[in-house]
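Supplementary Note 3. Input sequence used for the single-chain structure prediction.
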Amino acid sequence: MVLNVSFCFGLLLLCFQLCEVHESNFTADPQGALETECRDRYFWVSVDVGFAGRVPRFEAVVENGVHTISEDHASMCGYTLNNLNGRASLRASYFSCHTENQNDNNFIFKLNVVLTDHMGKENKFSLSETCTLSVDWSAKEILCEENYIEVTLARDTPCSSDNRTTKEAWLAALALAQRSAISEWKIMFLNQERLDAMSISAARRMGYMVDSTPNRVVFRSAYNQPHSTITEIDGIAVEVIHATVFFRCKWAVVMLDTSAACTIAPSSFDGVTLHWRTPKVMTPLVQDPSGFVSKSIKLGVDAQLLDEASRKDMGYVLGEDGQVVHVSVPFGAPGGYRKSLVENNVYKESYMAFLCYEHIYSHVFMDGTEMETRYRQLQVMETPLVSRNLFAIDETLPHEEVFTVYLGNFALDVQLIAIKLNENYLSVTDAIQNHYFITKIPQINGTHGITIKVPFKDKAVNRVYLGEGLLQYSVEINYILNIIGRNDTFFYHVSVVAHVNDAFPPAVSAFCTAQSIIFRMDHSRHAGLWEVCMGHQALTSDLSRLRGYILTNDSHSMTLEVPLFTSGYIYEAKKNICGSNYILIFIMS
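The predicted structure, written as discrete structure tokens, is reproduced below.
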């Protein structure tokens, strides 16, 4: 039987009023703390939680007030909330509640971002954004979001099938529609061969959403609803919900198949790469595989599709194995998020990627009509905690006389808070003020490392003269690191050694005059590393004045004149011969 389908224009207003308005201050947008973007099928808002002080609250603004977007109602109203790596974000479907729809082409979002400081004071940042559809709607679109399933159909979507169960469902729906009031919409669920029809208001009370836009009908459901079932397709767990929206319009019956199927099987991790599999053909959605035509399969990340060249450059692999599509994402690939944790001073990481999978296909029915379906799934792929062996690279070049040490690699939520150089504790701020160079080095995979430079001449550096002109420098560096937002502190120790050749003590010459002995020492490259002693006392200006010596020092040499009859001379009973017991000893400082 072929049904003549006509259309009734109307709008079902099914969104909740969720919360009353809180008094607060309205403020201009915080520079850099708030980001917004219109994307392919949704509006995106991101807020820096560090700036906010606490996780912000989002409100939808309409003419009659505001509606708080809470976790409890987000799945029903087409919103997804996230808080990751110090940023809180909101994704709002173009068909989300409280969004102004202009002919299914322009979508106006009016939102408040409510920030609460540590004193409990609220500040609101008002947003208004118009998003224009960039890619035309397909006849049927299925979105498997993180927290809900959304199906939208064009009102003129063909309804025909060769599946016996679906035919029976349609016939039952037709009989029910003929008995229903003309203006009343209904939805019917098929669950384990049992038909369950109800009004839209009853469906709403159960957590479902049915809405009508100028050209489309929208059905939305959270996961694990009473009318959904779990099945396996090609060995992969899939959640299926069979739903048909129908109503009478004059003497015709409008029936729209709003069924959906979403892969719920989690990703797997082999220690290096994340893997995810999904059926290429969702048999609950394609009753007759002979009429199935696959048009394109694409992959993206963070809810945005990538072109093939970008996908390959980022290391994402997309392939097919018979009727199964498989995806591979290397740990730390661009576009994902790394999180850090410390257990018993062992640094660990997990990696998360928000996979965006799209399959566009068409279905040619026996009567020759064709319907294009755009199937999208946003899949969270996450690894377990993986122990990370940090590594230090000694990049010191002895001729530069500076220790240069690189420590890596960390996720972005790890920061250096202090260092200890041979038991000398310094915060990062103090270290920089003391002229140590500490540099953060970003890496292309989203991690970063730290480079520290310590001059050989620094008082924290140990020096040992090994003889024969060989000088050894060494320093113990203890890094004190912290995970932002968790206050997990951990430590890493590095010991570095450098050798410098041709570090001989400076040569000393001496000669007698009629009134004194004069000692002369030319300054060498390493002159500052040696100390001149008279006996067991260091030669200083004060010691020279006390004993009546004459000490002169310039950039080239040092001269010490020891007059006769001053302290330290030994006089022998030989005529015209003088002697002295002064010995200049050079030792390491």
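Residues 266-387 form one domain. Confidence is low (pLDDT under 50) at residues 1-28, 160-165, 585-589.
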